[in-house]
Design a protein that fits this description.
alpha/beta, 18% strand, single chain, seven-stranded parallel sheet, 2 domains, UDP-galactose 4-epimerase, domain 1, 13 helices, Rossmann fold, two-stranded parallel ribbon
């Protein structure tokens, strides 16, 4: 059985490949730049672009199962090509807030394309990616500081290796067809606590500078973030800071239940990525 992993050199996809190789499965890895893939020995690396569905035809030949990290606007064509090639099962990397974005490029568009195909499907909806905070690396490296509004806002960050472990498991194991798994890391933490964890991992004090929300909003928009996105995420952080949510245990239990091992903490993630912040 050949399993195609799309986005194979991405933050999660690379771990999906490693998990599948570790358990002895035949893996074909799709990337736009095969020459720079740097994946484990034995992985068949192929070129292709999910925004250009015809380019995928060679990569789909002989594939039975597929890990899909697609864009909504081409998802139906990608899924149709997969079905025509004989793919039987697709596992979609989506997001916990998929239901809030009904745009043509949103996760929901990908989920619907797969559901409508008649193939076996499972959706993965992880919450906050811990890896999002790699965006803090430049200011931590330069001045041991993170500048952001809403330091009291709480999130429940998920290690990308745990997302991949869940994905690899449902790709190869039966019993997950037609299910949507919404999950997150094992603990809810304030932004300040996450900054402190990174400081501990690198053996340095990292300061959190609380920005005025209005000033931060203007800065984000000037840096190219869409105004609607900035308003949405700032509103979410503001609400969380006013009324911090406890750990969502239902979400936290999914990783250990499906993988048989404890979910990685944010402190573990910070340790794993310490070199990125030093």
């Amino acid at each position: 059985m050949t399993i195609l992993v799309t986005g194979a050199t991405g933050m999660v996809g690379r771990h999906v490949v490693a998990e599948l190789v570790k358990t002895g499965h035949r893996v074909r890895a799709l990337t736009r730049t095969p020459s720079a893939a740097s994946l484990p020995d034995g992985v068949e690396v192929v070129g292709g672009d999910l925004t250009d569905p015809p380019s995928l035809e060679p990569s789909l030949n002989g594939v039975e199962r597929m890990y899909l990290f697609a864009v909504g606007r081409t998802a139906r064509d990608v899924v149709a090509a997969a079905k025509q090639a004989g793919v039987r099962r697709i596992v979609v990397l989506s997001g916990a807030l998929a239901d809030t974005d009904d745009s043509e490029d949103g996760y929901l568009a990908v989920e619907r394309a797969v559901e409508d195909s008649g193939l076996e499907w499972t959706h993965l909806r992880p919450g906050e990616f811990a890896a999002n905070w790699l965006d803090w690396a430049p200011t931590i490296k330069e001045g041991r500081v993170v500048r952001r509004p809403y330091g009291a806002a709480v999130t429940q960050p998920t290690h990308e290796a745990d997302i991949a472990a869940v994905g690899a498991r449902v790709l190869v194991e039966d019993g997950h067809t037609g299910r949507t798994y919404t999950f997150a890391g094992p603990e809810a933490l304030t932004t300040v606590a996450q900054v402190d964890a990174i400081g501990t991992a690198i053996g340095a004090t990292v300061r959190f500078d609380e920005l005025d929300p209005a000033e931060a909003r203007a800065e984000w928009i000037s840096n190219g973030y869409p105004e609607a996105f900035v308003d949405w995420i700032f509103a979410m952080w503001a609400e969380s800071a006013r009324d911090p949510a406890p750990t969502n245990q239902e979400w936290a239990d999914i990783v250990p239940r499906l993988t048989g091992r404890p979910a990685r903490t944010f402190a573990q993630w910070a340790t794993d990525h310490a070199a990125d912040f030093r």
